[in-house]
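Protocol step 4 of 6: record predicted structures for both targets in the notebook before any analysis. Target 1:
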Amino acid sequence: MASLEGKVAVVTGASRGIGKGIALALASEGATVYVTGRTVAHGEHALPGTVGETAQACSKRGGKGIAVRVDHSNDSDVAALFDRVREEQGRLDVLVNNAFSLPDDLTEQKPFWEKPLSNWEMIDVGVRSNFVAAWHAAQIMTLQSSGLIVAISGYTGVAYTYGVVFGTSKSAVDRMSRDMAIELKPHGITSLSLWQGLTLTERAERNLENIPGLKGGAATRPDDACSPEFPGRVIAALASDPQVLRYSGGTFITAELAQEYGVKDIDGKVVPSLRGSRGAPLWAPIDD
């Protein structure tokens, strides 16, 4: 029996990238995965991938993928998603808040005042969107007295990476996960955030190929990278752990949790922690 058989997950922003990798990893363990994103047809995004393709790939992995077109800046879309989960499944075991609005100029080396104010969209879809999804998820999870809410964050929570708004958004996600954990603890629900390093998504591979000098950056060295499925493998281990509540409120480096659980990347690689060069999380579990 797969470790997540009978479990229901929502993974936001999963048309491609980290979200897609997480959805596939959870489905590989038997989970039913609701795959959300805005891309439903080829050509709607410069990069390949649709929610339907991810959902189909999830079903081929042994779980069940369900594609739902969701704009995470639209509260009505998000409400309809969780209403559907409640009606179709009657439960929700895992929410992975991954959706994030990455501007095209993210990696351009310009100060914040030379970038457009529209970069604030990283707060709208990346922080506020996390809160809205968790708000809905908690209303399902509290009724069953269990659940896991994971926010995808990164070393930029403490280490300058790309720009002001990017770092602000990830720092906010970490703190929000911790404060949610305090209020969710009486209901047996775990909330935590995971720090990803360089993840070889479609976008990252394109940028590494086309942006001179990017491969030598502290945050973008290919030798330190992992596949998009790596964080999903760690989340699957968390979701299968009957003692997962002990981690609630903490911010964790994905690579370090992987070592605790004996998880490796899809190619067998032990992904390195960058604690020494990029920094350490601020927030420990609330029970520490």
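Target 2:
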Amino acid sequence: MSQGRDFLASLISAATDIAVIVSNEGKVLSLLIGARETGFGNLSHWEGRSINEFLTRESIPKFESVLEDFRAGEVSSKAVELNHTDNAVWEFPVRYTFHALGEIDGKPALVMLGRDLRPIAETQQQLVQAQMSLEQGYEARREFDARYRLLLRTVRDPVVFVSVADGKVKDLNEPAAALLGTTREDLIGSDFAREFRDRRREEFIEGLVNTSISDNAGAFDVVTKRNRHAVAITPNVFRAAGERVLICRLESEQQAAVRHDDLSLNLGVLFEKGADAMVFTSASGVIQTCNDSFLDMVDAAHLSDVKGRSLGDYLGRGQIDMSVLIENARRSGQMRLYSTRILNEFGAKTAVEMSVTWLNDRSEPELGFVIRDASRVDAIRTPQMQGHEDSARNVMELVGSASLKDIVSETTDVVEKMCIETAVNLTRNNRVAAAEMLGLSRQSLYVKLRKYGLLHKDYVPED
């Protein structure tokens, strides 16, 4: 008999994850954990206690309904899902089927055979999270697509998106379609090269890509096939979802001419009426042209008075200033906020701040200078010289506590170091120009730099 019970227990253990025998009063009489399930832990403390103590609040009414049917002599064949809780720490769902077992100790007993639902619950939770992530991704994509469509519809410049792989038009806006002489619907999916005269697809797309990645990127000139308009294409290539796409901005010859004329007009008016002095010189600093503001600054009557002369003739440090400006402009393309003084025809000096740009868009490069009067700023800085008077008084207080030779030597070193630092800053660490500015030989400057610990000091330019 005991062998039969053991066989039955083994059969139940193999067939279910958990088996619970309860009385018609709901008390746990016996409990068996399936052979495949080890995640429930030790549940032996359930025996002898009401099973309601180990059910969640929403599961108790479902179990009571089954128990009432059992007391009435009926056992439902429908599976019921119950959520167990143990010590209010963790919960686990189980799907039970109920079977009448007969009487135990003179009372009817009910056996509950359960299948653990935690793997299914975890899978469902993962599916829910995945669905939420997808919904968020779809929402973000819809929002991005709405912004993209609105931007493409409202931008006034003709814009076309072209696939590099097959040369097909992926998208475009209405101004681009109008410039090409057709509608947007007709162009989407069509071969972009066919919209222009004498253009083959492979060579045309390759030319656009090469133009977009060129260091001297410019416009790609074509003629439309439908209305024979001259069009300049400015391409840029980018990668989206593993595919290279060209974004092409189209500009008709008439639009380019109008834009260029407006810009030229505005620049001309700015040059003639601008408050700041503007000077264009050759690569060596010889004045080619200038505006009236520069003529006023140097007290010259006509352009002919300054044309052909070196701009260094009007700078406070002469050719030293000019060499510093030209060298930095050639090396980095521009130099900003260089402080010096302008000498007029009568020898008067005006504090100025200069910026220079290297104009290399022609066969013979030129230099463009913008010179701003900084005399008011220099006047504001003048009261700061009172600090030097305080320093002088401090030096005089040393009289009596040190010899005249020691006092002069100490103050000379301080002044010498300040002058060397100022020269190095003004020349942007150009040691040759700094030596010329200070009237020293190059070797003497290096000796003094080493003396004051400035030889290996990095120069950080100020914008």
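Step 5 preliminary note on target 2. The two ends are 99 Å apart (CA to CA). The longest helix spans residues 118-154.
Proceed to step 6 after PI sign-off.
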